[in-house]
Amino acid sequence: MNTEIVYLYRDASNYKKWNDVIVAGGMSESDLDFIKKCLMVDNTFIPEQIGLPLLRPDANITEDDHCFAELCVEEKKRTCEPPTIDVSWRNIMDSFNNVWKTGWRIEEYAI
Q1: What DSSP assignment string belongs to the chain?
Q2: Is 59 exposed, middle or buried (0-12, 13-18, 19+ CB in 10 A)?
Q3: 69-71/2-10 β-pairing
Q4: Contact at 8 Å (CB) between 46 and 104?
Q5: How far, rounded to the nearest angstrom, does the alpha carbon of residue 8 sit from its chain's CA centroid?
Q6: Environment class of residue 67 by beta-carbon count within 10 Å: exposed (0-12), middle (13-18) or buried (19+)?
Q7: How many Å apart are CA 22 and CA 65, to the nearest integer?
Q8: How far is CA 62 from CA 17, 32, 56, 82, in A?
Q9: Which residues contact 51 (CB under 8 A, 6 or more apart)?
Q10: What are the φ/ψ torsions at residue 99 (nearest 5 degrees)?
């Protein structure tokens, strides 16, 4: 069993970019409860810091851009589909555990 993760990048001008990935391994309800505690306001997080692709554009960055994405917690689900990225659910949980201990490293993404 694998886990599908859906998240959204929305800049200050409301430009949106969705992403969904499938990671190897299945999440539990306690995993989801823990992740919710780690998220910032409005279920935001920094995808790159937990092993997911950053959705902010690489080129033509403006003052509207930032490093945050919204985790669509209601969209997380188990699936039999094969992984689409080389990150396991265990890696994701380890990264969230690290964030819980040290906090999000927002300063790394100053524009």
Answers
A1: -EEEEEEEEE-TT--EEEEEEEEBS---HHHHHHHHHH--GGGEE-GGGGTSPP-S-SSS--TT--S-EEE-GGG-EEESSPPSSS-BHHHHHHHHHHHHHH---GGGG--
A2: exposed
A3: antiparallel
A4: yes
A5: 9
A6: buried
A7: 26
A8: 16, 33, 10, 36
A9: 85, 87, 91, 92, 95
A10: -60, -40
Token readout for 22 is 């499938």
Place of tokens 């509207």: 64
Q: What is the pLDDT of residue 57?
A: 65
* Neighbour-count burial for 6-32, b at 16+ CB within 10 Å, e otherwise: bbbbbbeeeeeeebebbbbbebeeebe
Per-residue pLDDT of 10-21, as tens digits, reads 988 898 889 999
Task: Indicate the pTM of the whole model.
Answer: 0.87
